[in-house]
Structure formats: C-alpha cells, structure tokens
C-alpha cells in the first residue's frame, strides 16, 4: 500500500494531472440531479477532482484519510476538507444530498463498510456516484494487454461492479445511471509496464501466487515494438445509485 502522505507531493503529476481530473469531474456532475445542493467527495486525495466538482448552487466538501492529501486538498479548495476514515465518516445521518468516490473503492478491502457509510450520510433521494472496475479499465485491447490478459484476474477486486451493487442494495441504494470517461495521460508504454512488473507491483492482479510470473511477463513486454510509445488511455466506469425515500 502506498504511503499517501509521502505520495501527495507527486500524486497529481503521476496520475494524468488536470485533463484526467477534469474528465472525471465532468462525468460525476453529469450523474448528479439538478436538485443536488451538497456533495461530499470521499477519498478526495489532493482535491484535484474535487475542485472541479462545481456548478451554481452546489456546495462541495472533501474527506480523506491521509493528512498529507487532506492538507493539499484544503489548500486547493480554501478549506471545506475533513480528515476522516471513509469507513466511519465524520458526518451526521442523512446530512448530504450526494456522495462521490472516484478511484477509491478499489483500494479499500472493506468496501462494503464504505458503501454502508455512504448510505447512512445520504438524505432521502440522495445519490452516490462511484468508479467501479478500475483495474479492468486499463485493459484497452493493446499489445500490452495481449501479453498480460491470459494471466490476469479481477475476480477479487474490491470495486467489482456486482460487489458494489450488492453492497448498495443492502443500504437501500438502487442503480440509476452510468457513465464512462477517459483516464487522460495514463496510457502505458511497454517499458513502463515492464518496469512496474519487475518491481513486483500489481501482483494482486494475477491469478497465481507469484503474480503470474510477473518478471517473466516483463521480459515479454520488453520484446514488444515501440517501447516508449504510449498505448491508448484507460476508460473508467462510473455508476450512480439513489437512496430510496
């Protein structure tokens, strides 16, 4: 697990920066009802997406469990950010109209607890918008994916769409919308993919205990042509749920 306090200073530049954040924010806003007046962005990180979740009449708050991330978000947003565990949100019951979670649930082993907390803080008719199947979104049909796909599995992903729908239903939330957006600036090169596999990262993506022979796959990736040409950017999925009145 990354040390997000330490990662905060470089997080935005290594994750697609403003174009990616703007695409995410536009997609979230497109799933919020016009009547939404308060939005809580959980796992807000540095606030790069959060500060773009604006439209007339909408008040946006951020929440993150990392002090380093929350401090950066507060500086960026001029306040309006709380330090808190997303599995135990520091808000009253039925206190907000909407909650967003962008690139969060894939990181949280107890994602069911997060969804339950979201259901608790949403008012009647409130909407929860979250990314699902994040890692699967990186499979863009490239030659990199052709090497990795036979060895990959998303069966245990914490943010699998069917898992999140099940947790949402338990909290009285039903699906009401879906959107896709591009992860600008995150297209992989064979060299970068090989480097992360050689370093032992993302072993949990694979079906066997040693990461599908990750280092052997790295050798295959280094044989691909155009080692430094970025392949297409990933495409992420957002799902919206509404709390029954």
Topology overview:
Elements: H1 4-11, H2 17-30, E1 38-42, E2 59-64, H3 67-77, E3 81-83, E4 96-101, H4 111-121, E5 122-132, H5 143-148, H6 161-170, E6 173-182, H7 190-198, H8 214-221, E7 235-243
Helix pairs in contact: 1-3, 4-6, 7-8
Folded structure, characterized:
The protein has about 240 residues and is an alpha/beta fold. The chain has a single domain, classed as Vaccinia Virus protein VP39 (Rossmann fold, 3-Layer(aba) Sandwich). It has eight helices and seven strands. It has helices at about 5-10, 15-30, 65-75, 110-120, 145-150, 160-170, 190-200, 215-220; strands at about 40, 60-65, 80-85, 95-100, 120-130, 175-180, 235-245. Helix 3 (about 65-75) links the parallel strand 2 (about 60-65) and strand 3 (about 80-85). Helix 4 crosses helix 6 (about 160-170) and helix 7 packs antiparallel against helix 8 (about 215-220). The model has no long low-confidence stretch (mean pLDDT about 90).
Could you list some keywords that capture this structure?
single chain; 245 residues; Rossmann fold; 7 strands; 20% strand; globular
The structural domain count equals: 1
Task: Supply the number of helical segments.
Answer: 8
Largest sheet: 7 strands, mixed
Q: How do the SSEs run, as a string of H and E? A: HHEEHEEHEHHEHHE
* CATH architecture assignment: 3-Layer(aba) Sandwich
Give the strand order of the largest sheet, numbering strands 1, 2, ... along the chain: 3-2-1-4-5-7-6
CATH topology description: Rossmann fold
Number of beta-strand segments: 7
